[in-house]
DNA sequence: ATATACAGGGACAAAAAACGTCCCGATCAA
DNA sequence: TTGATCGGGACGTTTTTTGTCCCTGTATAT
């Protein structure tokens, strides 16, 4: 494929530019639909007229339909967008980035999506879309999937679709309450994923900020024990990676606690663990759930994190060397590759 | 590849049109170089200005160089033209034509080049170029290659290049003098091919229009016997297919003989044999050389014929069902496919 | 050597396409 | 019902493409 592209580019030098632009257009429409000309023009920061020409062309090709509510992708347009996925790597040079990361971080598989989650809101959605696709491919009957909270994982939940392969799958929250907003909590997302796919789910109801003694009591509860037993047999871990300080702040840590974390050198966060640059655990959220050893035992660990601001955190967590697949974005990838080892 | 092209076409509807045009441009330059803007514009019947824009673009891409003598392909341009070969089948729908012919005529491999040899002079050159390529692929050490005369085969000779694989190959004329112009005779072409490739060759010197008795005498000549013995071990036959009447006329048949041929239903001609629509031999040139049985015995029979006017002849000869590869052009292919079985 | 024919490149007006901008009636959501 | 937003029409302006002609240099044949 690469060869064909190079050949075509010699005969039609701005082929890739056009393909890139059209791809971004389709993708934007997909994420914003139904959307009007003006709104879209603003979102893609281009002019209304120029966008109009593009849209008219895509309309003639039948890739998008135009209603009074705005424009949206047709079935074929959706199909084309999906079919383009492998092409995108070449068009934006993402394949090279992915290979570079793979080598640098020692992760078996790396997928890089175009854009920067810090700058463009839809990039998070893209991460979710790709994450959902990868999860669907990895899933096997009877799997136990441990999921964490966070915006990236929430995005995956959003893009999951019903499928027979999820029939006997169980989604289990990786950890109990972590003090996040409810729509981003692991419990919520496990349930949401189950609902979207047709799988089943379990919950881990652990109130926030419990005293250690109360925690011990809870641990004896049959329901809780049940879930913990399931977590020990986790085959797939689906988790996000957070910036340590940002996560702590989101979880309403006091200024004092934040200072402690910073002093300890915490850089990244995942399933309630905080890691320093060397990948060592420097702090744990006071709750119960998936243990780090169990993550290492899992067959497939799917990490999702994007945005330039996440680069340091990704690098830190990669030290765990337990990941099988990393899904990230261009912004993070470039930042990672430009830092010295 | 096909899939990628379809995808691209949805995003850039006139991609294939542009690729087609640029390909034809490169090809025309290749066949006419060095050529000036005006001459080329006339040859491709387009305007000077529009061609100029195209040329400027290709020049910037480095595909052609511009000298005071005119423009010509650069090394890279040459390379691109070669690399495009597989693409051309898709762009011009030639793959479908080839498959159709393969089915209809029962020939294992069919290659169709773009254009019509009756209309555009360079199509014959293209047939030769492709023929040379195929021959080069088919050749093995120690092969004996029987070649016929004719313009198509002459074109193959023109496009052959030196190669180590031709080291111990012998080119042998399929038949003795057949009354054609010397530059199209089998003898000449066998020698030419040997010279171009670095192979060796043998000649079959048989004067035109010999009496049967004289022929018998000649047959006893050691030199002749030698060549005939070689022909019995022919592994590759490289031959053209002619329209029966046209060939006879080119060979200065009398009006009376022509009438006889026509009455006998002669349609096609190859290595001195004339066949009717059913593929039956209705006449033979009075000379010596490769026998029809030997053609059937050969491992590879490479037939080359193009132009709409050759369609009937190709169909007739295909009845022999001894061909392995047919190289023809769009004009002939379309005509063949549009005739009832 | 010289004439000639043909090469590429420059120039420029005409034509066409692309673009910026504004408006309008329809439609949907509040 | 109201207000915001939708797609499509309209139109002048800008940019690009195209047609046309000319000029100078260079091969080639005489």
Account of the protein in words:
The structure is a homodimer. By secondary structure, chain A is α/β, with parallel strands linked by helices. Chain A folds into 2 domains: about 1-85, Winged helix-like DNA-binding domain superfamily/Winged helix DNA-binding domain (Arc Repressor Mutant, subunit A); about 90-335, Rossmann fold (3-Layer(aba) Sandwich), CATH 3.40.50.1360. Chain A contains 16 helices and 13 strands. Chain A has helices at about 1-10, 15-30, 35-45, 50-60, 75-90, 95-105, 120-140, 150-160, 185-195, 210-220, 220-230, 245-250, 255-265, 290-295, 310-320, 330-340; strands at about 65, 70-75, 110-115, 145, 170-175, 200, 235-240, 240-245, 265-270, 275, 280-285, 300-305, 325-330. In chain A, the strands form 3 sheets. In chain A, strands 3-13-12-7-4-5-6 form a 7-stranded parallel β-sheet, sandwiched between helices. A 4-stranded antiparallel β-sheet of chain A has the order 8-9-10-11. In chain A, strands 1-2 form a two-stranded antiparallel sheet. The mean pLDDT of chain A is about 90. Chains A and B meet through α1, α2, α4 and α5 of A and α1, α2, α4 and α5 of B. Chain A binds a DNA duplex (30 and 30 nucleotides) through α3 and α4.
